[in-house]
Design brief:
- This protein has about 170 residues and is mainly beta.
- It has one domain: Beta Barrel (M1 Pyruvate Kinase, Domain 3).
- Helix content is about 10%, strand content about 30%.
- The protein contains 3 helices and 11 strands; from the N terminus they run βββββαβββααβββ.
- A 7-stranded mixed beta barrel has the order 1-6-5-9-8-7-11. A 3-stranded antiparallel β-sheet has the order 4-3-10, with no helix packed on it.
- The protein is globular and about 40 Å long.
- It starts with a strand and ends in a 16-residue tail after the last strand.
């Protein structure tokens, strides 16, 4: 069965490292560059290759964030606190590593699971450990640019020769 989800929230990184992410209703992603208006990240170049950095967009499931909060005895973890650009509902992101996924108008390539950093333990001690081993979201490269809005559909692109999975976004 095809995997389909939706965009629950969108977040931009601050100009100064470590400050909270800013919630927005829409973002524009640009192929090989990332999120337009995302200070410090847009158009970043890899130090090791001299090519555009593949780390252009980060995504995490709200369901997983909720599970982490419950395990840690928290009522919730606010949107954007785990420092993902896109938080989703209804789709297992880590299971899609190695696949192209349509998010709104854009196509992203999920190239690896996200590695949680020490900032996660600033939210709540123990969160970083919980986010390891396939419970931390994904990193993506922008293949085709476009607008992404809160409520947009997240759709797995089909394997070659199979039609794209499609459905109405949750809550539409």
């Amino acid at each position: 069965m095809p995997q389909i989800g939706c965009v629950a929230s969108l977040h931009l990184h601050p100009e100064k490292s470590g400050e909270p992410l800013r919630s927005v209703e829409q973002i524009e992603v640009v192929a090989e560059k990332g999120i337009r208006g995302n200070p410090r990240k847009f158009g970043a170049i890899s130090r090791s290759t001299g090519q555009p950095s593949k780390r252009q967009v980060s995504l995490m499931e709200r369901e997983q964030i909720g599970e982490h909060a419950a395990t840690l005895g928290l009522q919730s973890i606010p949107p954007g606190a785990v420092r993902s650009n896109i938080e989703t509902l209804g789709i297992d992101l880590v299971a899609l590593v190695g696949r192209e996924v349509r998010v709104g108008e854009a196509i992203l390539f999920f190239y690896e699971a996200r590695m949680p950093c020490e900032k996660m333990d600033r939210i709540c001690q123990g969160l970083r450990a919980l986010m390891e081993e396939r419970r931390q979201g994904v990193l993506a490269q922008v293949i085709q640019g476009g607008m992404i809005r809160v409520g947009d559909e997240v759709t797995v692109l089909a394997e070659p020769g199979i039609q794209e999975a499609s459905a109405t976004a949750i809550g539409s």
